[in-house]
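Practice problem 4.
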């Protein structure tokens, strides 16, 4: 085996016992160097290549990765994905989101995903976040180590400048893929990489190092503030994970902004931009309790309803023409990713109809002598608006037996007699 020259890696935290290290392998320069550098240094190494299918040479890239791993005797999984071009994230952002979803899904318990981001990537990320007016947490950019999926994410080359990575590859005669799209400055990151950073380095040769250093200082500041923000967030957070608006409003404005950013991050949503903090302050927090104020960004949203703030990724809703017949024997998977499941009973007495919620429906609730409009019943049951729009209706002939987890008197009695339950859930 060729001796490994000095190419320092940021170590995993002391005491870490990874089940395996999994390299996210694109076949480009950076991930090829990381694969070569870790090979022989890390026990139980494997690789994942995400096949986006966006380029005419995508199959050839997958074959290149296969040959590369075969030469090093490193197991490789090739994961084919479909990128949602209409996600609102742009093609570059949608591909990144799809790739990370694939990595997270493939990561086994306790495994460490190693990605080959380097110092120049960190500098670009810092600048992109700054141009979006991100707060200190956003400016901290990429972290060397964090929880990820079922395991951990590790960026061992984050302190290494790209020229050193290129020198390592040339020293070892490594072959890698050059994605022709990297030469185009159409995407924001490529524009920074190809046009802005070379110009900055002409005047300030250490520009990349300075930006990466600023990102690290922002991360340190964020870490120092973590305890206070965590305590404030705990005070505002409800048992269901939403925020209590009244408690939040009693915080100082700067701490309130930090709490909102931390809450959004812990919910797993994209970083909240400065415009989001402003919108929450001006539109959501002052909204009437009966209003349904909302702020959206990057396929995510925050809603104010009654005395709470709710954050979530946008989900599809059932189309008005959705219709299915269901006997309850097996869980019913709905087009929006939810499922209906009958537990404790073999099936219903006869097949029932499932459809999207429509106006004008009525339901008779347990303990009531007469029916109410479904809209009124949902309001009385405090079903939040972000769930109302997704509710599947379970219908027998024209009688509403259930709207999501809201059950009619007839269905309630039927379930009670059989010690059964009907659940509507998202996986």
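Answer key:
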């Amino acid at each position: 085996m060729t001796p490994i020259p000095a190419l320092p890696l940021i170590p995993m935290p002391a005491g870490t016992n990874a089940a395996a290290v999994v390299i996210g392998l694109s076949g480009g320069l950076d991930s090829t160097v990381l694969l070569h550098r870790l090979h022989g240094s890390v026990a139980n190494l494997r690789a994942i290549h995400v096949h986006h299918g966006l380029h005419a040479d995508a199959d050839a890239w997958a074959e290149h990765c296969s040959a590369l791993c075969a030469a090093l005797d490193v197991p490789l999984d090739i994961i084919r994905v479909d990128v949602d071009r209409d996600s609102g994230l742009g093609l570059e952002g949608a591909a990144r989101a799809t790739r990370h979803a694939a990595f997270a899904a493939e990561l086994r318990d306790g495994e460490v995903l190693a990605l080959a981001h380097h110092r120049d990537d960190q500098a670009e990320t810092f600048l992109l976040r700054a141009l979006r007016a991100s707060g200190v947490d956003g400016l901290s950019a990429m972290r060397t180590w964090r929880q990820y999926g079922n395991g951990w994410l590790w960026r061992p080359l984050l302190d290494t400048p790209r020229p050193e990575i290129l020198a390592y590859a040339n020293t070892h005669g490594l072959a890698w893929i050059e994605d022709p799209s990297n030469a185009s400055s159409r995407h924001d990151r490529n524009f920074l990489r190809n046009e802005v950073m070379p110009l900055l380095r002409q005047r300030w040769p250490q520009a990349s190092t300075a930006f990466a250093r600023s990102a690290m200082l922002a991360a340190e500041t964020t870490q120092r503030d973590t305890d206070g923000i965590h305590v404030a967030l705990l005070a505002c957070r409800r048992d269901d994970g939403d925020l209590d608006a009244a408690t939040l409003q009693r915080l100082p404005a700067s701490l309130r902004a930090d709490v909102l950013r931390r809450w959004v991050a812990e919910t797993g949503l994209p970083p909240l931009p400065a415009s989001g903090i402003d919108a929450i302050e001006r539109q959501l927090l002052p909204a009437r309790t009966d209003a349904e104020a909302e702020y959206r960004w990057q396929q995510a949203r925050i809603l104010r309803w009654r005395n709470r703030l709710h954050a979530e990724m946008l989900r599809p809703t059932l189309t008005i023409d959705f219709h299915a017949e269901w006997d309850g024997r097996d869980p019913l998977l709905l087009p929006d990713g939810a499922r209906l499941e009958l537990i404790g009973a073999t099936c219903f007495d006869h097949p029932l109809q499932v459809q999207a919620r429509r106006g004008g429906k009525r339901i008779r609730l347990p303990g009531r002598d007469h029916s109410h409009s479904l809209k009124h019943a949902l309001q009385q049951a405090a079903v939040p608006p972000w769930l109302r729009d997704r509710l599947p209706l379970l219908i027998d002939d024209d009688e509403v037996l259930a709207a999501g987890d809201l059950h009619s008197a007839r269905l309630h009695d039927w379930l009670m007699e059989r010690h059964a339950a009907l659940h509507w859930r998202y996986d």
